[in-house]
C-alpha cells in the first residue's frame, strides 16, 4: 500500500503541491493513503481526489484574509524581502477581549468548507483507503490522528482546520471538552503513523531544507523573536519525526522516499503571497523532476 505524507509548513505547502503534481502526473504514482499535518492536511484532500488543477488554483491564490479573521500580523516589504511585524491594534484587542491567542483563524474554516465540498468528501471515502490529518490534544498532552472514515463532513472539516491552527497566532479550538491546536506541535510529518496504518511504500515531502545553508536572522522585537523560537522548536520536532520514521521503515521493510526543499524558502511561512507560492509550486515540480532524472 503506497502512502503520500506531507509535513507542516504554512505557505511552503505550495512546494509540496509541485512535488506531488510531478509524482502523480509524470511518475504515475497512485496512492492508497494520504497523511498530512497543518498545511499538509489542506493539501491531502485535493490530492486524494486527484484534482491538482483545483488545488493549484486554491492554494496559490490564498491570501491573509482567507486565513485570519483577526490577523496578528502586518505584512511588509523591503526590497525583494517580504516579512511580517506585529499588528499592535489587533493584538491589543485580543488582550482586551481576554483571548489567549494573538489572532483568530475562523476565516480558514470557512475557506476549507468553501473549497472542499461534501460531495468531494464522500468521493474520497468511497475511493481511497484512508486520508488522515494530525492534531495536538493540548489538554491530554498527546498527538491524535483523525481519519476521514471516522467523522462526518462537518467534523472532518473541523479537524482539518484544527490541524492548521498554529497557536498562539491562530485559534485555539475546543472539541468534547479538550483543547486542540496545530498537529505540528507534536508531529510535523507523520511517517511512522503511515507505517503503523499499513503503508509499504511512502513518499514523504518535508517542507524544510535537509541542511541549513545559512544562519537565521533573529527577530528584533519579542513578537518576531517568538516566531523564530517556535520555528526552531518545530524544526527539532520534524528532525525527530524523520529519524523515527526512518527507523520504523527500516524495521518493517518499508520503502521511504524523502523529498526536501532544496533551500530554505522563507523566513516566515505565515506570509501568503501569490507571487511566492506560484514560484514555490514551480520549484517543487522542477525539484522532483530533477531528482528522478
TrEMBL record:
A motif (DGA/G) lies at residues 182-184. Residues 4-195 form the PNPLA domain. A motif (GXGXXG) lies at residues 8-13. Keywords: Hydrolase, Lipid degradation, Lipid metabolism. A motif (GXSXG) lies at residues 36-40. The active site is at residues 38, 182. This is Patatin family protein.
Amino acid at each position: 500500500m503506497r502512502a503520500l505524507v506531507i509535513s507542516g509548513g504554512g505557505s511552503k505547502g505550495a512546494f509540496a503541491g509541485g512535488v506531488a503534481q510531478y509524482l502523480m502526473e509524470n511518475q504515475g504514482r497512485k496512492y492508497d493513503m494520504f497523511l498530512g499535518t497543518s498545511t499538509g492536511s489542506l493539501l491531502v484532500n485535493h490530492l486524494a481526489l486527484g484534482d491538482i488543477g483545483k488545488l493549484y488554483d486554491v492554494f496559490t491564490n490564498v491570501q491573509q484574509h482567507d486565513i485570519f479573521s483577526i490577523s496578528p500580523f502586518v505584512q511588509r516589504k523591503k526590497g525583494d524581502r517580504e516579512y511580517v511585524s506585529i499588528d499592535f491594534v489587533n493584538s491589543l484587542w485580543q488582550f482586551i477581549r481576554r483571548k489567549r491567542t494573538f489572532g483568530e483563524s475562523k476565516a480558514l474554516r470557512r475557506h476549507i468548507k468553501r473549497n472542499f465540498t461534501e460531495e468531494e468528501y464522500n468521493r474520497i471515502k468511497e475511493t481511497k483507503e484512508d486520508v488522515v490529518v494530525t492534531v495536538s490534544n493540548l489538554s491530554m498532552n498527546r498527538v491524535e490522528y483523525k481519519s476521514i472514515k471516522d467523522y462526518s463532513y462537518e467534523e472532518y472539516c473541523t479537524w482539518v482546520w484544527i490541524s492548521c491552527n498554529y497557536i498562539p497566532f491562530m485559534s485555539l479550538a475546543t472539541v468534547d471538552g479538550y483543547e486542540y491546536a496545530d498537529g505540528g506541535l507534536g508531529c510535523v510529518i507523520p511517517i511512522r503513523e503511515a507505517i503503523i496504518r499499513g503503508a509499504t511504500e511512502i513518499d514523504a515531502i518535508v517542507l524544510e531544507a535537509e541542511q541549513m545553508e545559512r544562519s537565521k536572522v533573529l527577530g528584533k522585537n519579542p513578537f518576531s523573536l517568538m516566531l523564530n523560537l517556535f520555528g526552531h522548536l518545530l524544526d527539532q520536532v520534524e528532525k525527530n519525526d524523520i529519524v523515527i520514521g526512518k527507523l520504523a521503515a527500516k524495521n518493517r521493510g518499508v520503502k521511504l522516499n524523502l523529498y526536501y526543499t532544496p533551500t530554505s524558502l522563507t523566513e516566515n511561512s505565515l506570509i501568503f503571497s501569490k507571487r511566492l507560492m506560484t514560484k514555490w509550486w514551480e520549484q517543487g515540480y522542477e525539484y522532483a523532476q530533477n531528482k528522478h532524472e
